[in-house]
Amino acid sequence: MRAIRLALPLVLFASAACAQAGFQSCLSGLRADAAAKGVSGATFDRAMAGVEPDMKVIEAMNNQPEFKTPIWDYLGTLVDDEKVAEGRNMLRQYASVFAAAEQRFGVDRHTIAAVWGVESDFGKARGKWPLVQSLATGACLAPRRNAFFKGELIATLQIIQRGDVRPDRLFGSWAGAFGHTQFIPSTYLRLAVDGDGDGKRDLVDSIPDALHSTANFMAKAGWVTGASWGYEVRVPDGYSGPSGRNPKHPVSTWAARGIVKFDGSPLNGAGNAGLLMPAGRNGPAFLVFKNYDAAYSYNGADSYALAISLLSDRLRGKPGVQGQWPTDDLPLSREQRRELQRLLISRGYNVGEPDGAVGSLTRTAIKEIEGKLGMPQTGRPGEKVLRALKGGRV
Ligand code: CA
Question: Which of 138, 166, 298, 346 is found 20 to 30 A from 196 (Cα to Cα)?
Fold first, then answer.
């Protein structure tokens, strides 16, 4: 449940004082709206004490990346050897919790673990924005979509009032996704469950609650117990038939179009499937079934659903993508990204900590390197830039 995608114009305020005054009057209105949803004045006042508008939330909303991340980069970061190794550790460490969630909701442990790994890197990347402050800012000052933020703010207050999560532990993305599973508050109210039996639903400090809640989400999204999300296929040269997650067709329809499994064997699987070609007709292709849609519903993007599906396969011991992505500049693993950052630091660039997370500082440095190499300046961390740095060419 990542940040929703918003394309919003910059909002200009006459002055900060004006914004502050508007914010306070907006909060008064929210207090009444929250009361109508059962949030007591005392809960509201305690949660709002000292909350000020955070204009960085509005900036984050407006900050559209200038360069669209290619699918192979996206998957390269989220489904790498490190993530697989850590996922296997987690499956061992929390084996009884995974078994209980699997039993209770019929969703297999590898899929639950994959969601955990992609959403929050197994709890390590849960977001640092104070939830109440970010959502209040969005509810009062976002130029559009205020209703979304207002609804999520009131849902957050309801969570606080129930005593499920400690208010001082409520941090997340600027758009409100929080905890191990990165549910937004309204999703939390609908789908979070108690996994450790203490009567509370705490997706921040209870791993059993988080894993059971993810399983519940997938079950409610139509998960078919025991079925596969899909698998990689080969499409005949010159294929010009339909593709995409939808519309779905019986496997026999795809077989009749000459599509086979990646190893050349005939297609199998029950129910209808879509043919996914996320990098176009010259890249890897996948046949995707109903359980792929369950993963898709977690975040509404094929790149995301594919990351969950492929990571779950790697955790099962299956291979990752076997076809070739249509690029001559392959993505870097996180370890390679750290190496790239260390090399940039050694050249005098400020990229922050070499943590493998490529933010604006690293991108700016990469752009300069790309310029020196005569490459288009995209800021993308790829093999070509890393090779040039390692070879001392820049
Ligand atoms: Ca609990």
Answer: 298
| 16 CA → ligand 1 middle, Å | 42
Q: Which helix (H) or strand (E) holds 247?
A: strand 244-250
190 alpha carbon – ligand 1 mean position (Å): 15
Contacts of 6 (CB under 8 A, 6+ apart): 61, 144, 145, 175
Which positions ≥6 away from 200 have C-beta within 8 Å? 162, 163, 164, 165, 194, 206, 209
Per-residue pLDDT, 328: 93
pTM: 0.91
Contact 175, 139 (CB under 8 A): no
Q: What is the CA(210)–ligand 1 centre distance, in A?
A: 9
Pairwise CA distance, residues 50 & 240, whole Å: 59
Residue 334 has what pLDDT? 87
Q: For residue 118, report the distance from its CA to the centre of ligand 1, in Å.
A: 22
Tell how far the Cα of 91 is from the centroid of ligand 1, in angstroms.
19
Q: How many CB atoms lie within 10 A of CB 318?
A: 13
What's the rounded Cα separation, in Å, for the pair 205 and 55? 28
Ion ligand 1: protein residues whose beta carbon lies under 5 Å? 194, 196, 198, 200, 206, 209
pLDDT of residue 167: 86
**Ligand 1 center from residue 117 Cα (angstroms):** 20
Check if the beta carbon of residue 102 is closer than 8 Å to that of residue 109: yes
Residue 357's contacts (CB-CB under 8 Å, 6 or more residues apart) are: 337
CA distances from 162 to 31, 133, 171, 201 (A): 17, 19, 17, 10
pLDDT value at residue 385: 97
- Please choose, from the candidates 214, 204, 208, the residue with its C-alpha nearest in 3D space to the C-alpha of residue 166: 204
Q: Which residues of the chain have pLDDT under 70?
A: 1-19, 64-67
Closest Cα partner for 285 from 257, 312, 315?
A: 257
189 close to 153: Cβ distance less than 8 angstroms: no
